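User: Hey, quick favor. My workstation is busy. Could you predict this chain's structure for me?
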Amino acid sequence: MLYFKEYPKSGCTEWVIFVHGAGGSSSIWFKQLKDFCSQFNVLMIDLRGHGKSAGDKPYNQYTFNEICGDIIEVMDHTGIRSAHFVGISLGTILIRNLCEMAPDRVKSMVLGGAIMRLNRRAKFLSAFGDKFKTLMPYLWLYKLFAWIIMPRERHRESRILFVNEAKKLCQREFIHWYRLIYEVNPLLRYFTEKASPVPTLYLMGEEDHMFLPFIGKLVKTQENASLCIIKNSGHVCNVESPDRFNQESIGFINRVCGYSA
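Assistant: No problem, here it is.
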């Protein structure tokens, strides 16, 4: 089972589950923990092979459904029937997929730095990484991708944080996760064509040049989705603009619950 940590709040019935991106761990939410724990029960998870979670054995090829199944297993183990989900980067794809697998387990979605379509640059990087994933040390590729996705000086903290977390992976684990790329395009097309009825907030940095343009178009076609653009922030907006990220996401969850923001 995945490594997880619970932060229960006395008398609260609402759970918020955080899902990090590829190469990260639950520690990337350190700027969210205090604010969310003041209002909700919180569950932090390390995805398989990340942080303190072991990789899959016997190292079969990973799929999005399998990884979402890991999250549901933790929910069942902890007795959490349904929850609000907060994700970043690849974690947003996992949450959206989990919503398709088990819609009754997801009360709302906060998708930060959401990936809902790969533009030409992202597709080129994906193909480049796929070609060289077994030939180059994975940290070289990870540092290159982090620099391209988060290029500005104010993104430096995010780059360093994710590269340091990625050091906890191994080459084999990186390859298992990278192979998810073969599922990404058809999955994202499906998400685009089928809007989710679950209330969804997209939180995007205005400097997230790889993924923001499409999200701006997507929310116009999805009745239950809204978009908040955070100024002076890039892809990892929960790290670069934590106060705004926390304010917007907590307010959104409270509104879904019928509480005053």
